[in-house]
Hints:
Elements lengths: L2 H26 L3 H28 L26 H23 L5 H29 L3 H4 L8
Helix pairs in contact: 1-2, 2-4, 3-4
Amino acid sequence: MDELKRLLEMALRSEIDSRDIYKKSADSTKNALLKEKFEFLSGEEEKHRKMIENIIRMKYPDENINVPESTEVPLPRVTVTEKDPISKLLSQAMDAEMAASKFYENLSTKFDDEKSYLMRYLSSVEMSHYYLLQAEREIILRFEDYDQYFEMMHVGP
Length: 157
């Protein structure tokens, strides 16, 4: 199998897993602003999935896309239980976004056309997700229990 296609298919798996983690996180939080951020990130990962699928279809028009069950891409796993503080989830998600950014930056060197640009773009977007999560984590570290004790804290007018 072509190494580049295999890497792109692993990137697909990573985007699907990230989308699902953010969706699950959005569904489980009571904090309206945090829920909105997780939903945004889930939607972003879905856009990335579609973009990567399009790249595979352009580069390999006569081949099927085979999304692996797991990935060898060096992305940290996000594993959080209900008892863990939300800051732990955010820290693990930040690590995953940083690793994804590095992965896409490295993948960009395997292309010599607009696909290289798209991989660099994905790398930059993943870093923007990192910074969004970092800002939210900083807030939460100051008010770790705000999701539990101040349900109305983020209700708008």
